[in-house]
Amino acid sequence: MAFTLRELDRVTDHDGVAAIDTAFETASVFELAIDERRLELVERTLPQPRIKRYDIAELFAPWCTWDHGYVAVDGGIVGVAVVEYEPWHRRLTLWHLYVGRPRRREGIARALLERVETHGRKIGALRVWLETSTVNVPGIAAYARLGYTLCGVDSTYYEATDVADEVAVYLSKPL
């Protein structure tokens, strides 16, 4: 099936975006190995696959600061990407990128990221930056295929949450 991209409307697209199934399954996770002078992400196979679901309601939370977004549409909304431009360092932060489970591996995420990157270049951003976690091995692999590279980790980022066993992973791509 074909899909089209358009700008996200916070009001009229709310229900369609909220219906996206953000769950993914992974057979491995990254663990942070630390020695005196080095950090390393080491992939570890899990005894059984793990399913993680992101809370898409956060995308519309009052504290969310994204200022631009796109949706992929094919009958209904099948994917979404939202970003925020931070002019002080000319960074475009990708706050959310989701493609519904039944529509993955069709190029929708790639198309959304290309649209985000085009937007970033148009407004003068130097790079796209994003945060994910050590559980999102499939996502990290997909971002790597699209030119995103590791630029940092934070082992304390989630410590006060229900995913305290995860480590924040930061990726970026120059524009």
Poorly predicted spans: none
Tell me the structural class.
Answer: alpha+beta
- The CATH homologous superfamily is called Gcn5-related N-acetyltransferase (GNAT)
Number of domain modules? 1
CATH class category: Alpha Beta
As a whole number of angstroms, the C-alpha radius of gyration is 16 Å
Number of helices: 3
Report the principal-axis shape. globular
CATH fold annotation: Aminopeptidase
Number of distinct beta strands: 9
Measured as a percent range, the helix fraction is: 10-25%
Instruction: Write the H/E string, N to C.
Output: EHEEEEEHEHEE
What's the arrangement of strands in the largest beta sheet? 1-4-5-6-7-9-8
CATH architecture: 3-Layer(aba) Sandwich
The main pleated sheet reads as:
7 strands, mixed
Name the average pLDDT: 95
Distance between the amino and carboxyl termini: 30 Å
* Strand composition percent: 35-45%
Keywords:
175 residues, alpha+beta, Aminopeptidase, seven-stranded mixed beta sheet, two-stranded antiparallel ribbon, 3 helices, 9 strands, 45% strand
Characterise this structure.
- The structure is a single chain.
- The chain is built from 3 helices and 9 strands.
- It has 175 residues and is of the alpha+beta class.
- The strands form 2 sheets. The protein has a 7-stranded mixed sheet with strand order 1-4-5-6-7-9-8, with helices on one face. A two-stranded antiparallel sheet has the order 2-3.
- The model has no long low-confidence stretch (mean pLDDT 95).
